[in-house]
User: Fold this.
Amino acid sequence: MTHHTPTPPVRGCGNTPILKQRGQREVFCGLTGIIWLHRKMQDAFFLVVGSRTCAHLLQSAAGVMIFAEPRFGTAILEETDLAGMADAQDELDDVVARLLARRPDIRQLFLVGSCPSEVIKLDLSRAAERMTQAHAPHVRVLNYSGSGIETTFTEGEDACLASMVPVLPETDARELLVVGALPDVVEDQMLGLLAAMGVTPVRVLPARRSEDIPSVGPNTVFALTQPFLGETTQVLERRGARHIPAPFPFGEEGTTAWLAAIAAEFGVDAETFARATDAPRARARKAIATVAEGLRGKTIFFFPDSQLEIPLARFLTRECGMEALEVGAPYIHKQIVGPDLDLMAEGPVLSEGQDVDLQLDRARASRPDLTVCGLGLANPLEAEGLATKWAIELVFTPVHFYEQAADLAGLFSRPLRRHGILKDLNGGVAGGAMGRATGRMAPAGEEGSA
Ligand code: SF4
Assistant:
């Protein structure tokens, strides 16, 4: 072991049999990713080719987060398009031409497919190629699917990043590429830690602006900051880049282990590593210990949703003293989450995919202290007296690396505390209408109409 890598348990979850079930699923669609991606990529525009439902999803979910002029919109497919009566491609060309004429700040345009565009088999990759030719060199047009048919909401980011990889410039340079959209302030902390370890140059995907788009090639090594980037990993490997397997940078241990894997790759000596990480590690440990008080000994059950479940369960069991009963994830890519599985002690049921009714039965039978699930399941479970945490908040909140480790623990301790207070108020019975806010606000976003 080098660089203070965490000690694995005697028996980890690496070889635990995985319960695989397929049935009705309760998840958001990949359009959700636009909400954080449009904030990250400052000169990109996301044009959803979809229905009014898609427009409403984006506007209501993202309405709370728009500070500047919106950088997403919806080209709405009308019923006539769905029936194949209109030439949707021509309409789409018009919408894009008008948008780009009005918004010269747009350098990257993503045509985002949706359920209706899949249903009518609209070829968005052909449209993207055609539009790239028409608007080059100022604008690059790419496409990906955010459709909710058989996908989960974090796959939107995966599909978006994967769509960028084939057109990244080629390089022979030995470079570290960090992959996954992080809030700028968190990304800066990460870059600061890597710089203190002497690891340079570091590129990030997605880049904040199109001029900083990274190159890729056979000497690129890449580390993921998000566990849901399976397709992006594959396309990067196809470009010759090599993945550095590591636990994900959640919590003090996860962050240290993630940095240690990079340090080992770049030959950083133990002294330099300690100099870069000792102080923030100590700070993180102390901050987590305070927040984790309310989590110690509590049980947790993860429904599959964000794909962050396995690394989070590792953090909560190892660093916050929780006991995981079931850790459900939409997909379990061992290449990606294997290091986290190895660190998590044997015990929880590991499940992949979902048959929601069977899983609800298991949750009800085990009565976890906290259930992590999607919005659709949270209210019914709360009504049955179970404390819940919305998985989607984990993706909207800065949770990576040392300085956010205690905030991450806080995301789990708060619902437990609130549940306890409500229980006291109700004379020992939790449940009933909780009056949770959905964050719905006035519409925002830019609409076209195809
Ligand atoms: S992409 Fe599909 S699931 Fe998502 S909002 Fe549109 S119609 Fe609904």
Remarks:
- Residues 30-151 form a domain with the Rossmann fold fold (CATH 3.40.50.1980).
- Residues 270-292 form the longest helix (23 residues).
